[in-house]
């Protein structure tokens, strides 16, 4: 994703304004995923259409599965097709210098029954050129890559039902220069079978995570009495993220931890790859919004579970409201870690390091909005912890990307709180 100025307002056609929670009963984790995709794709496609003449959406495992909406509003491809339609209309409707942007979608599905339903889509989204493909995504991906014009921008969603996926086979598609990708990394399955030496399971995981020594790292963790489940979880997902970065050449790879709706336990990760700094900026914005949705779902499920054992539902709801918000605690912790990383990577001498290089590194490693990191940087500048030699003596609160940064003369304390 690249920054663009003078964008027209996003105009929704009215078919899909907000996700309907009632469509997600029994699969609330999909609401978290779709909340992220909806907000990210709306911003991505609208901005990308300002520069590219064609935007291509690819869904490798489209379904539909368990959708409740006849308009497919509760499916990933339905959300994407609506975003493509809205962006096309917004740019075409500009009074001065309207843009005609071609919107294309490639939907792949192996199940004959699910694939047959995709035939309904072209009439529903006539402003998007929709291509459907019946078969195995890893086999079809290279052909789709050849169909995409070199100057087009593509967004690829890879959301398999399990973990059988050959990452190297997808390289022609996910390795395109003008491309972003989101994987559904089925952590619950991978975690369960990670160290299986079965001849049928191990080769499948080797194709999913073609990274050397990731199993040895897990075995070392198992032998470490100080290791925690969180350390094991991060080791597994980071091995996959490293493989995505290596195979496809993405500079920034990050993830959204999607938990089971009835407990605080990871079900899967949405793993995101981009080569553009604004991409990681918008990713974190949309991630934090989705984590709020997830926290509400988990909190409500806890109350409902307790209510099954008690008739005092109203009291339980009040207790839930008073309890500490784990999501808020997580975000505060991430903000503190981001602050410390910021201070760690700023040079102490020389000409400094460009702010644009610093903030992208911090956002790639921690869940924090750029607006919050800018605020922290400004406060650290005022306190003398950071030096911005090019920052003019003005009330400006946001550093420019080209501003060089140096560590200040005030020594930061390890226990010092976020300014």
Model description:
It is a single chain. This protein has 419 residues and is α/β, with parallel strands linked by helices. It is built from 15 helices and ten strands. It has helices at residues 28-48, 76-92, 112-117, 121-124, 137-147, 171-174, 187-193, 202-208, 214-223, 229-248, 277-307, 313-322, 326-345, 355-365, 370-383, and strands at 54-59, 102-109, 129-134, 153-158, 179-185, 252-259, 266-274, 353-354, 386-387, 404-407. The strands form two sheets. A seven-stranded mixed sheet has the order 3-2-1-4-5-7-6, sandwiched between helices. It has a three-stranded antiparallel sheet with strand order 8-10-9. Strand 1, helix 2 and strand 2 (102-109) form a beta-alpha-beta unit. Helix 1 (28-48) runs parallel beside helix 2 (76-92) and helix 1 (28-48) packs antiparallel against helix 11 (277-307). Residues 12-16 have low confidence and may be disordered.
Proportion of residues in extended strands: 5-15%
**CATH topology title of the largest domain:** Rossmann fold
CATH architecture group name of the largest domain: 3-Layer(aba) Sandwich
CATH structural class of the largest domain: Alpha Beta
Measured as a percent range, the helix fraction is 40-55%
Main sheet attributes: strand count, strand direction, barrel closure: 7 strands, mixed
Protein name: Three-Cys-motif partner protein TcmP
InterPro entries: Tcm_partner (IPR031009)
């Amino acid at each position: 994703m690249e920054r663009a100025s003078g964008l027209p307002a996003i105009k929704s056609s009215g078919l899909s304004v907000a996700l309907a929670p009632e469509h997600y009963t029994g699969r609330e984790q999909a609401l978290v995923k779709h909340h992220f995709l909806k907000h990210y794709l709306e911003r991505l496609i609208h901005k990308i259409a300002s520069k590219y003449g064609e935007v291509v959406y690819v869904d490798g495992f489209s379904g539909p599965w368990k959708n409740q909406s006849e308009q497919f509003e509760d499916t990933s491809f339905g959300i994407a097709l609506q975003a493509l339609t809205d962006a096309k209309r917004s740019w075409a409707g500009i009074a001065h210098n309207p843009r005609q942007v071609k919107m294309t979608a490639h939907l792949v599905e192996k199940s004959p029954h699910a694939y047959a339903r995709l035939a309904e889509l072209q009439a529903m989204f006539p402003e998007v050129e929709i291509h459907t493909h019946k078969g195995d995504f890893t086999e079809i991906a290279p052909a789709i890559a050849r169909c995409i014009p070199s100057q087009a921008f593509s967004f690829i969603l890879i959301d398999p039902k399990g973990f059988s996926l050959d990452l190297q086979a997808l390289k022609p598609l996910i390795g395109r220069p003008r491309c972003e990708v989101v994987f559904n990394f089925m952590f619950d399955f991978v975690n369960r079978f990670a160290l299986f030496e079965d001849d049928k399971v191990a080769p499948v995981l080797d194709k999913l995570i073609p990274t050397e020594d990731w199993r040895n790292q897990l075995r070392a963790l198992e032998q470490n009495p100080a290791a925690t489940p969180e350390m094991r979880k991060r080791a597994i997902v980071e091995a996959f993220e490293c493989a995505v970065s290596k195979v496809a050449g993405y500079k920034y790879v990050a993830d959204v931890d999607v938990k089971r709706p009835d407990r605080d336990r990871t079900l899967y990760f949405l793993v995101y790859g981009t080569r553009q700094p604004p991409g990681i900026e918008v990713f974190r914005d949309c991630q934090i919004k989705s984590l709020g949705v997830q926290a509400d779902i988990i909190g409500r499920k806890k109350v409902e579970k307790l209510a099954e054992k008690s008739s005092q539902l109203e009291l339980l709801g009040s207790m839930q409201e008073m309890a500490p918000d784990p999501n808020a605690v997580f975000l505060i912790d991430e903000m503190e870690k981001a602050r410390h990383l910021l201070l760690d990577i700023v040079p102490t001498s020389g000409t400094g390091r460009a702010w644009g290089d610093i903030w992208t590194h911090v956002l790639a490693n921690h869940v924090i909005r750029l607006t919050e990191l800018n605020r922290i940087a400004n406060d650290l500048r005022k306190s003398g912890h950071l030096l911005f030699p090019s920052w003019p003596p003005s009330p400006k609160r946001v550093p420019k990307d080209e501003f060089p940064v140096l560590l200040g003369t005030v020594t930061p304390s390890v226990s010092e709180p976020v300014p």
